[in-house]
Amino acid sequence: xxxxxxxxxxxxxxxxxxxxxxxxxxxxxxxxxxxxxxxxxxxxxxxxxxxxxxxxxxxxxxxxxxxxxxxxxxxxxxxxxxxxxxxxxxxxxxxxxxxxxxxxxxxxxxxxxxxxxxxxxxxxxxxxxxxxxxxxxxxxxxxxxxxxxxxxxxxxxxxxxxxxxxxxxxxxxxxxxxxxxxxxxxxxxxxxxxxxxxxxxxxxxxxxxxxxxxxxxxxxxxxxxxxxxxxxxxxxxxxxxxxxxxxxxxxxxxxxxxxxxxxxxxxxxxxxxxxxxxxxxxxxxxxxxxxxxxxxxxxxxxxxxxxxxxxxxxxxxxxxxxxxxxxxxxxxxxxxxxxxxxxxxxxxxxxxxxxxxxxxxxxxxxxxxxxxxxxxx
RNA sequence: GUGGGUAUGGCGCAGUUGGCUAGCGCGCCAGAUUGUGGCUCUGGAGGCCGAGGGUUCGAGUCCCUCUAUCCACC
Length: 377
Description:
Blueprint (H helix, E strand, L loop, with lengths): L1 E7 L2 E8 L2 E5 L1 E5 L11 H5 L6 E4 H6 L3 H6 L3 H5 L5 E4 L2 H6 L4 E3 L4 E4 L6 E4 L1 H11 L3 E3 L11 H27 L9 E6 L5 H12 L5 E4 L8 H11 L9 E3 L5 H9 L4 E3 L2 H7 L2 E4 L2 E4 L26 H9 L3 H28 L2 H13 L4
Parallel strand pairs: 4-5, 4-14, 5-6, 6-10, 10-11, 11-12, 12-13, 13-14
Antiparallel strand pairs: 1-2, 2-3, 7-8, 8-9, 15-16
The chain binds one RNA strand of 74 nucleotides through helix 5 and helix 11.
């Protein structure tokens, strides 16, 4: 059940009630692909940094340890000791992003595992079955994430097929929810809108999937190489054609600025590898811009990553120490960076929710964007 | 002490029968990264080639002396 509590322009402050707890939106889901946040951040650590939802990956968990094992262990939440909501990505994007050899056919996708190269087939039914075994709170439809740029013809064909796949996903999900040994019989299903940067294909597809009464709707295939302006334009043009009473999820996005802009255009859910990946690579997000801790100027810097931050890392450790850990490739360095960055993102979302409640989102956004542009020297 | 080897950017090395602005790996300094292979990519700085002398149109490459260092023998 999704409820909008406040509206400020197109920005929404809502909450999604699930069997695993209520999600306050807008929300940033923390990415934990293999059932773990990269950077050795545990689910216990997440409890101290305002994380609401963990995103796990269908494809990865299927390949290793195997979704049957996750199911036998009581589902992913039980398995990773995380009692709050989990969203599983369907595997559609991974086929696009990391499977080398792949063949997309009407029935699904044939590709090779990035772990051992063995041949794998995944179609809408398989993806739903795996996600049902994983027993996430929210399952994503199996889609094709088309590359950018793509020809209009390719995009139209791909989007049409993604729609047909969505019908099969919905049907399979309904069947799975009724099975006796299904762990989460209330698993939600979000559909995914595609169409690249072709406004009319996006809108046509949005209208078609809106009629399906899904639990939520996602914008996929963005931030894959197009400009920010193109991305914002597509969000702006497409969101009005999605149900007003359902959550909207912008997949894989993005930078703090991307999120601020997308919220203003009506997006509720986000996820992105940036805070974790960039953290591992030495970039710390702060309220005054992004720092590259590997830069020599932090060698003797006694300050915390962000002097205005209240995270568990900033309360204790200096930039100089964290820089040393990163240079020495100590796991602790990655852990501290990722923990801080996730806290930053989660806190940003908290601020966004408060600003919408107060009805001053636009002012908040503009100030925040101005602050974030400045790099800390 | 004798014989032999080696001396090239922070470290480890390539440099053909002497021939254009001396390369490579790592490191260092920066920049990319958007539904995650702790990956990868892209730039940049840094060397009067151990010292001195000689041969030559031309020497990191050849010759002599010295210095440092390694190995074997005594």
